[in-house]
Amino acid sequence: MRASAKIFWILGVFFLIVAVAYGFVTGRYEPMGIEPVGFPALLALAGLGFMIAMVLTLTIRHNELNSSDDSDAEIAPNAGVQGSFSPYSWAPLWAAIGAALCFLGVAAGWWIFAFGIMFAIFGILSWVLEFSVGQHQH
């Protein structure tokens, strides 16, 4: 986890430097001033990198070392249950179709967005409730 924190600190600094340089160049050479989309987007990327790095750094301080932090560690200490997944589940497909239609609807037409919302709600509810009904019921 220490390596991940270092990577995100580096990414945050990199995007901050790029944002300042981009703002300076567009402010100097563009006739309308600083470009209103790219500069805030780069600042947001820098902020996101710093936020993730801070969370990882604080997590490292409160938890013991992970086996990924030890160069002599084996894979076995991290073995175990990684989650509970339903085999043959169609719910992720419906949720993905809903998300794709929502993104397409924003670009092409709001009526497509409405169909995307319907597919997404069906997919997400199916995904959340799939262990409450059917053959995988508890």
TrEMBL record:
Q: Which UniProt keywords apply?
A: Cell membrane, Membrane, Translocase, Transmembrane, Transmembrane helix
Q: Which enzyme class, named as a word?
A: translocase
The UniProt transmembrane annotation reads 7-25, 37-58, 88-106, 112-133
EC number(s): the record gives: 7.1.1.9
Q: What is its biological role?
A: Part of cytochrome c oxidase, its function is unknown.
What is its quaternary makeup? Associates with subunits I, II and III to form cytochrome c oxidase.
Protein name in UniProt: Cytochrome c oxidase polypeptide 4
From what organism does this protein derive?
Answer: Brachybacterium alimentarium
| Taxon lineage | Bacteria, Bacillati, Actinomycetota, Actinomycetes, Micrococcales
